[in-house]
Amino acid sequence: QVQLVESGGGLVQAGGSLNLSCAASGFAFTWYTMTWYRQAPGRERQLVMCITTHGDTTNIKDSVKGRFTVSRDNAKSTAYLQMNNLKPEDTARYYCNARSYAQDYWGQGTQVTVSS
Known about the structure:
The protein is mainly β. The chain has strands spanning 3-7, 10-13, 18-25, 33-39, 46-51, 57-58, 68-73, 78-83, 92-99, 104-106, 110-115. Strands 2, 4, 5, 6, 9, 10 and 11 form a 7-stranded mixed beta sheet that branches. Strands 1-3-8-7 form a 4-stranded antiparallel beta sheet, with no helix packed on it. Strand 9 and strand 10 form a beta hairpin.
């Protein structure tokens, strides 16, 4: 059974940090590009950043450059999103996505709320 389980969200004050995790199971994690998205209420889902199968970071959203970092641990089948210097506009539900040329999987998301 394919699963992507996000965790690590919560309520944090502006300027704080959170480290989101996306634990994968049921598929060959190593062969999938991992992408973090976010969606705020009433807004479209936005791509935050990707990490390729080779560990290269791509498609970084301009507003998070220098603050967010994506990483992956293939041995643990887990992707991470380290978020520093959080701003109220980062408030959203954060989702991870696993994508290969033939498959596309989504997690249920984890809520991040940044208070001013």
